[in-house]
Amino acid sequence: MLPGFRWFRNRRRRAILEAPFDPAWERAITANVGHWRWLEDEERAHLRELVQVFIAEKHWEGAGGLELTPEIQATVAADACVLILGLEHDFFRGVESIVIYPSTVRPPRREPGMFEVVTAPIEAPAPRLGEAWKDGPVILAWDSVLAGARNASDGVNLVFHEFAHKLDMLSGAADGLPPLPEGLSREEWIAALQAEYDALERAAQRGRRTFLDRYALTNGAEFFAVATEHFFEEPRRMRRDHAELYRVMAGFYRQDPAERRRRSD
């Protein structure tokens, strides 16, 4: 970014932060964002700043009859910004728009083209809880957002999942290889994730219960997004049973959620 534009951006963000933090945001974060209770005072102050800029800079849209409220915006923004508490970042620069539906999104059935010869029934698209499009919006179902935000220990968080995809896409593609910070090599990242992927695949083939959701086997992008959910939601178990995966995830996010939770015990 040219220095002049950086100056303008920073000046604009300083102006955003000079405004009071909306009490409705504070109430929503306290009530809905389970990870809030494990943050120290300095981290909470930083998260408030991130939320304030995030809400101001993104385009928000309610869809499917959903009326956007400060509660919805603050809950989504706070969970998204938990991911970047320790990162050098630019407020998810790959995210311009956030579209939120009341519940599961059911895409319309595809209609055949005018000259298309249909040789098999056209199946209805599967219902979706969320999507993250490269150079496009993040789409979320509010009921799933709220359930995931409030239960911060079950390994399931829709906002973490979709915004992890957006971090992944900063490298140019959603492939499970986001831009890595200094000190974390591409080789060790791939080795750690590949070893866990292979172990998950073997366990799934044998019908065994697994730590990571088997949806992680879809591809590298989904593996990273699912691993992100478990890294923040079940960090002590990951650190204990999947130490190398935990190490590289902590190296990427520059956070230690297992230690954070230990301090709060």
From TrEMBL:
One of its GO terms (molecular function) is aminopeptidase activity. GO terms for cellular component: cytosol. Pfam families: Peptidase_M90. Gene3D superfamilies: Collagenase (Catalytic Domain), Glucose-regulated metallo-peptidase M90, N-terminal domain. PANTHER family: MTFA PEPTIDASE, PROTEIN MTFA. This is Zinc-dependent peptidase. It comes from Plesiocystis pacifica SIR-1.
